[in-house]
Design a protein that fits this description.
This protein is of the alpha/beta class. The protein has a single domain, classed as Aldolase class I (TIM Barrel). It is built from 12 helices and 7 strands. Strands 1-2-3-4-5-6-7 form a 7-stranded parallel β-sheet. The longest helix has 18 residues. It is globular and about 60 Å long. It starts with 10 loop residues before the first helix and ends in a 12-residue tail after the last helix. GO terms for molecular function: deoxyribose-phosphate aldolase activity. Its EC number is 4.1.2.4. This is Deoxyribose-phosphate aldolase. Pathway: Carbohydrate degradation; 2-deoxy-D-ribose 1-phosphate degradation; D-glyceraldehyde 3-phosphate and acetaldehyde from 2-deoxy-alpha-D-ribose 1-phosphate: step 2/2. It comes from Mumia zhuanghuii.
């Protein structure tokens, strides 16, 4: 790797940046996250926050039993999350395995909803690079507008940061389309396996330097998945990275975010840490399909004054 797609420089330059990163103050980070989680918002602001959170959801199905019918059903929900209320916003994207990308793209039609595809031997990331590239190219050719790749955590934890960086650069190149555009690349760190906050910061910067458009906490297949302290740390990383390079990168916490209360904690953290520039689906997403139903029920509660019950929203 001679240069990164962000123009930072050689592999040696990238590794030098990682070596110079300061250590993470674990106590301070967790205290800051805990303080932000206690913030409350008023009723009018809550409606705005709920609609914003709905618009940030990547509606996802990633099971071995996925069928074209299930993907079409998910796409219908993405288009009209609340069929009884046309003012309810659409979600940001539908995320599926590569072989179901074409089904999702057809079902969504021309709607401004992304089709995201996991690739690169999801969720393990353990495959030869040429297999990862083929996986990515297939999904892009089928119509994916976003690729969620997973890093090789084994290589990262073994200290082979150059291999991890080179794979991200290669997958980013595979996201290119013939018209000069590219499918946005979301790089999954699987923070639950990285063990330390220092490792999460290092993986975040490595991914951004290698060309990630988004950094994502988790596959949702490993516990712990998204946590507020880890997301706070990643938000600090994208904020500082933009200050250093001028390039903005998004953040996607995924896995374990199930309630409206949780989503609002994350939105407060985004606003207080990275700022308003990240308070949009372009730069912040929730990888949490089960969250959508709770958001819809809370939205209906604000409208009617009572809870509608889980049977008033579709089962994903």
């Amino acid at each position: 790797m001679t240069t990164t797609s962000s123009g930072i420089g050689s592999a040696a330059d990238v590794l030098a940046v990682l070596r110079d990163l300061p250590g993470v103050d674990q106590v301070g980070l967790e205290a800051r996250a805990a303080a932000l989680s206690t913030r409350s918002i008023k009723k009018d602001a809550k409606r705005t926050a709920i609609d914003l959170a709905i618009s940030m959801v990547d509606l996802t199905t990633l099971e071995g039993a996925d069928t074209p019918g299930k993907v079409r059903s998910l796409a219908a929900k993405a288009l009209r999350p609340d069929p009884t209320d046309p003012t309810c916003p659409q979600v940001a994207a539908v995320c599926v395995y590569p072989d179901l990308v074409a089904t999702a793209r057809e079902a969504l039609g021309d709607a401004p909803i992304g089709v995201a595809s996991v690739a690169t031997a999801f969720p393990s990331g353990r495959a030869p690079l040429d297999v990862k590239i083929t996986d990515t190219e297939y999904a892009v050719a089928a119509g994916a507008s976003e690729i969620d790749m997973v890093i090789d955590r084994g290589a990262f934890l073994a200290g082979d940061l150059l291999k991890v960086a080179e794979e991200i650069v290669a997958v980013r190149a595979a996201c290119e389309r013939g018209d000069g555009t590219h499918a946005h690349l979301k790089v999954i760190l699987e923070t639950g396996e990285l063990a330390t906050y220092d490792a999460v910061r290092r993986a975040s910067w490595l991914s951004m330097l290698a060309g990630a458009d988004f950094i994502k906490t988790s596959t949702g297949k490993v516990s712990p998945a998204a946590t507020l302290p880890v997301t706070l740390l990643m938000l600090e990383a994208v904020r500082d990275y933009r200050d250093a390079t001028g390039r903005q990168v998004g953040v996607k916490p995924a896995g374990g975010i199930r309630t409206t209360k949780d989503a609002i904690k994350y939105l407060v953290t985004v606003n207080e840490t990275a700022g308003l520039d990240w308070m949009t689906p372009t730069w912040f997403r929730f990888g949490a399909s089960s969250l959508l139903n709770d958001l819809l029920m809370q939205r209906q509660k604000l409208e009617t004054g009572r809870y509608s019950g889980a049977d008033y929203v579709t089962i994903d």
